[in-house]
Amino acid sequence: MTAVYDSGAGHIVRQGAAGLHAPEASVSHAGSLPVEPKTVTVAGIRAEIGPVLERLGASAGAREQARDYAFADVRALADAGIALIGIAEQDGGAGGSIRELAEVLIDIARADSSVAQALRGTFLTANSVASRPDLPHRQVTLARLLHRDLFAGTGNERTGGASGQINATARRAGANWIVNGEKYYSTGGLYASWFSTQARAEDGTVLRFTVPVGRVGVERLDDFDAVGQRLTASGTTRFTEVTVFADEVIGTGETDAAPDNPWLGTFAQLYLAAVQAGIAARALDDAIEYVRTKARPIKHSSVDASVEDPYVRQTVGEIAARAQAARAVVLLAAESLQRVRGLTGSDARSAGAAASVEVATAGVIAIESALKAAELLFDVGGGSITDRDLGFDRHWRNARTAANHNPRQWKQAVAGAYHLTGEDPPTTGLF
Q: Does the predicted model carry a pTM greater than 0.70?
């Protein structure tokens, strides 16, 4: 059976194939939301989310085993204004650099990488607002962010054809559209207020649009069944005769102007690397805690406590090195991406290509660091460290699942070509 969730109520409302028809959001189709003026800062947001991250970290293992979504804590993170980090103060945001944002993302993933992954759509939306003055519907989207709304979206389908093929359909209904189809990997869909995707019209035009998740005919299913990242709400979003109003259409691939920097997916890749860095950091946290409080020296050891065992110390030191490497490359790559901001023309293109490659190589190191750190965690203890109630296996499973978003072999080959011949990376959004 597939569970259908009501993210507002925070619990399952129905089992089976039936849909979730929440009331329509109380906003105009593309319109603005009333926003109470509230000054936010990066430091203030970090202070406010500290206790939330502690709760998430303490409950992450048990929640994964029970498939218990963190609705209240995710809402608390949103209400604190996490998505406003990086958005200019004059726009009502908290200001701050991409590096400062990456630090927060690592902290969230360190507490619970599934929550960090589930928030990816919201942070990608916020980054588009922060980095693109020409973003379609920018003021509407900014208003929703200031309202502390959460976002999800995907173009992925499992309905046949090559990756990237669009089978969802859109047909005219006067000035509006009627959409039918299914989208998978709807990361964060159960938490979100808004869902962005695309469908193909009868004439072949691809429509990109954003609708409220409560729109009649929008159905969110909790059917994501990967080995890891189980609570990212990355399952199916089904559209059955869904009305898309004319002012909700963001644009089409045919009408979009080519940007000076065509590597618009680089931040999305940096985000994935930050999630991996957070997983590595959590593996270190758990290794230290386990050795200090639970581990016992093996029979032929000459020490009285595991914290004194030289091999345990060496293992923890290596985990620490892996976690530090992952964090370092992510933060350096964030600085590279920051340098693209504000550039135009050929300067934007050359800086964008360089940042894309640096983020790709950072992703390689972050992935491999997280996988190795998660494996080494089990070397600091004996058989007891594999107990299911500890849930330490989730770190490797989460890192492995997140790594499969984009093959790191491609990242390495693209980086090699760039350095050897100057060949630009692809602009598919995976670099």
A: yes
